[in-house]
Specification:
The complex is a heterodimer. Chain A has a single domain, classed as MetI-like fold, CATH 1.10.3720.10. Helices cover 75% and strands 2% of the residues of chain A. Chain A is built from twelve helices and two strands. Chain B is an alpha/beta fold. Classes of the chains: A mainly alpha, B alpha/beta.
Chain lengths: 277, 364
């Protein structure tokens, strides 16, 4: 009975996840024909090619960007979540709605909105000019900074939700009690609230770090295509470079990196549980 | 040559629109009208076309349907690679496709298109001379050019008084104000020609030299851009940018007298998108009928008037209503300007040198 009930889910997983995944793995060991298609055979050449420093650099840069993005999203996510959780329940719903609202617009459109926001004559530039932050119109876009802003913007909501979820049920009196016992602002957070939020933070880190590795639109549109993430490399390998086997190999390496980071986060979660138990 | 990731020189709205149309139309089943899969002829009163977004105007399709009673389904793509992938997966049954010149070469190699039966084609001599018997497809054996364009650069004369050479895009004076197309093949046209090689080079040493030039150039670039560079040039955020001719660039050139589109003196390059019949096409009768229809000068003129692209049909000139487009270099480059321009060809085995070179440039 249970097997019959599980069948649709099982078939979906096999058909839509496992089969495509195995195809990619298979293709990563194939050699390319002269038009970049899959020729078959078995070779490790695609992986060997990826060991070239120019490709390793792309992987290294991606890991760095993903790490930095995760840290910034965690800090901002915690601050926003704390604010959210400390509002009256009615207000919380409204604020959450405001965070979800942008998702109703296509991601590409929102990224183009950032182009307008950051371009010369746009609001950000006018503001920095007005307060004399920079002299003369400054070039915000395209730049690595703009690319990073785009990444944080894209993943912040995903970081907020799990942290908020873990802070939501927390009784306000906990913080009050800590203050009564002489904790300052910093220690209220570091000793009382942060430990409670930690499982949410961990989930948020996972949800931010892994997808950042696969991003490819943001560096193209906001970063001026100057710095590539692994996602960009894979797209160019499959399209412009017409090297599907190597594209598949890069995808597999990316996948392994993701699994590895999940394992790291998983271990951290386990240690956390043991500590709290 | 075109963008792969993002559509060449078109606005966001059109990209998003085209993408959604492509998705929706891809879902429309092709039906079962085809009676016979014999490549020599046959097929019912229907025609399934897969073409570049915006290059076969809706008006042309509507008129053809009305005159012939053939039901046309027009799906669109935004890169040759997308088209090839769909075709080689065998999941789509098209009767007519519109690959670019280097893609024609690849499709021939992959045996995905069939030789055309020239006894069934009328009006080939309406084409401009450079599109009859082109280097990539001798004797127009596999493709009939429909639209053409160029790869060159554009500049704003408020910032650069005049420019004729690729060297402008490599000049440190304009640091932070120069953009290149975010496309490997397009970037290497400039890289190869500025270092004294031809755009069609497949020589490892020449490609290496071009890679070095492009790596040095990256230091002065504001960025790579294949989307809104005409706007950046118009507002002056960009002094100069490598550019594809076409609707978006032409609009800016027409509207802003400060912006100029040029084919560099080193040569530049020309591209063309033409009509080919895939192997196993079901409705070949309709396909030939449509090819002949597009070869009519008055219909070819609609590619310019309604589609904003340059027609490969020389006789179409007389039928083009908006004569100003004939003088817009970002649509119709003059014969003198493209005298030295090559068709960009499939790099074949040299692809790996380009791949390594371009990754090096991007990762530097």
């Amino acid at each position: 009975m249970t097997t019959a009930l599980l069948a649709p889910a099982g078939l979906t997983v096999v058909g839509l996840v496992l089969v495509p995944l195995l195809l990619v793995v298979r293709n990563s060991f194939a050699s390319a024909d002269s038009y970049g298609g899959i020729q078959g055979g078995f070779t490790l050449a695609n992986y060997q090619d990826l060991l070239d420093p120019i490709y390793l650099k792309v992987f290294g840069y991606s890991l760095g960007m993903a790490g930095l993005n995760t840290m910034v999203c965690l800090v901002l996510g915690y601050v926003v979540s704390y604010y959210l959780a400390s509002r009256p329940p009615q207000r919380q719903m409204l604020l959450l709605l405001l965070i979800i609202l942008p998702f109703w617009t296509d991601f590409l459109v929102r990224t183009f909105a950032w182009i307008n926001l950051l371009s010369p004559g746009g609001p950000v530039n006018s503001l920095t000019d007005a307060i004399g932050f920079t002299d003369g119109p400054s070039q915000w876009i395209p730049s690595q900074g703009a690319s990073f802003i785009g990444l944080v913007y894209a993943f912040l909501p995903t970081a907020i939700f799990p942290i908020y979820a873990s802070l939501r049920g927390v009784d306000n009196s906990l913080g009050e009690a800590a203050r009564d016992l002489g904790c300052g602002w910093w220690r209220v957070h570091s000793r009382v609230l942060l430990p409670i939020a930690r499982p949410g933070m961990l989930a948020a880190a996972l949800l931010t770090f892994i997808p950042t590795l696969g991003v490819f639109v943001i560096p193209v549109l906001l970063g001026g295509g100057r710095d590539q993430l692994v996602g960009n490399l894979i797209v160019t390998l499959y399209t412009e470079f017409r090297n599907q086997p190597m594209g598949a190999a890069a995808s597999v390496v990316l996948l392994l990196l993701m699994v590895a980071s999940m394992a790291v986060f998983g271990l951290a979660a386990r240690r956390l549980r043991r500590k709290t138990a | 040559m075109k963008g792969t990731l993002v559509m060449r020189g078109r606005t966001l709205r059109r990209t998003v629109l085209a993408a959604s149309i492509a998705t929706v139309t891809a879902l429309v089943a092709t039906g079962c009208g085809g009676s016979d899969s014999d490549s020599a002829g046959g097929g019912g009163k229907e025609l399934n076309i897969y073409a570049w977004a915006g290059e076969i105007p809706e008006t042309v399709v509507k008129r053809f349907e009305k005159e012939t009673g053939i039901k046309v389904t027009l799906d669109t793509f935004d890169s040759n690679e997308t088209m090839t992938a769909k075709l080689s997966s065998g999941s789509a049954a098209y009767d007519l496709i519109e690959p670019s010149q280097y893609s024609v070469q690849q499709l021939i190699g992959q045996q995905l298109i069939q030789p055309l039966d020239h006894s069934r084609i009328k009006g080939l001599d309406n084409l401009a001379e450079k599109f009859r018997d082109p280097s990539y497809d001798k004797g127009n054996k596999y493709s009939i050019p429909w639209i053409w364009g160029t790869t060159g650069f554009a500049y704003n004369d408020k910032c650069i008084p005049s420019a004729t050479s690729w060297k402008t895009l490599f000049d440190e004076k304009y640091k932070g104000k120069v953009y290149m197309l975010d496309n490997m093949l397009a970037a290497y046209i400039a890289g190869l020609q500025v270092t004294g090689s031809r755009a069609t080079s497949t020589d490892e040493g020449e490609i290496k030299k071009a890679t070095e030039a492009l790596t040095d150039q990256k230091k002065i670039l504001a960025g790579y851009n294949s989307t809104n560079y005409p706007q950046l040039l118009s507002t002056g955020q960009a002094c100069a940018a490598e550019a594809w001719s076409g609707t978006a660039m032409a609009k800016v050139v027409a509207a802003n007298p400060n912006v100029h589109y040029v084919i560099p003196e080193e040569g530049g390059s020309i591209w063309t998108d033409g009509l080919s019949i895939p192997k196993g096409a079901k409705n070949t009768d309709s396909a030939y009928q449509f090819i002949n229809y597009l070869l009519k000068p008055e219909i070819a003129a609609m590619a310019t008037d309604d589609g904003g692209s340059a027609s490969a049909n020389a006789k179409a000139r007389d039928f083009i209503k908006d004569k100003k487009t004939l003088e817009n270099p970002a649509i119709y480059a003059s014969d003198e300007a493209i005298a030295k321009a090559d068709f960009l060809l499939d790099p074949g085995k040299a692809m790996k040198h380009f791949q390594q070179g371009w990754t090096k440039v991007k990762a530097s």
